[in-house]
Amino acid sequence: MTITFKSTSDYEAIIGAQIRSVRFRNGLDQIQLAHAANISLGAVKNIESGKGSSLKTLVKILRTLNEEKWLETLSPENSISPMRVLRDQKLNSPRKRVYKSRK
User: To the nearest 10°, the Cα dihedral for 48, 51, 56, 62?
Assistant: First the structure.
């Protein structure tokens, strides 16, 4: 079994293609998206071509395309807190006493 890792450039290209797809679906051209997001046309071209961009630009584009949910999937809320699990285990287990055997 071979594990392959994608490079940063690969992820930039994937994200750029996804943004382009959503932009097409919304019926916008690059100029309209740049104007609506208050960013430069070059920034839109760079991100869509996988050349990278700033996080601020990505957020502006996602907000303009009504895709803020992408940002929420980057770091989902933990439904189970490890600290709470430990605390619950301590509360539910009987107290253990340490003693030495008598001779």
Answer: 20
Provide the 3-class DSSP secondary structure of residue 41. Answer: helix
The pLDDT value given to residue 52: 82
- Which residues of the chain carry a pLDDT beneath 50? none
Distance between CA atoms of residues 37 and 61, nearest Å:
6
Phi, psi (deg, nearest 5) at residue 49 = -90, 0
Count of residues for the chain?
Answer: 103
Q: How far apart are CA 34 and CA 64, in angstroms?
A: 9
Structure tokens at 57: 């630009």
Helices (H), 1-103: 8-25, 30-37, 41-48, 55-64, 69-74, 82-92
Question: From CA 41, how far away is CA 45, in angstroms rounded?
Answer: 6
Domains annotated for the chain, with CATH where assigned, are 8-75 (1.10.260.40)
pLDDT for 53 equals: 86
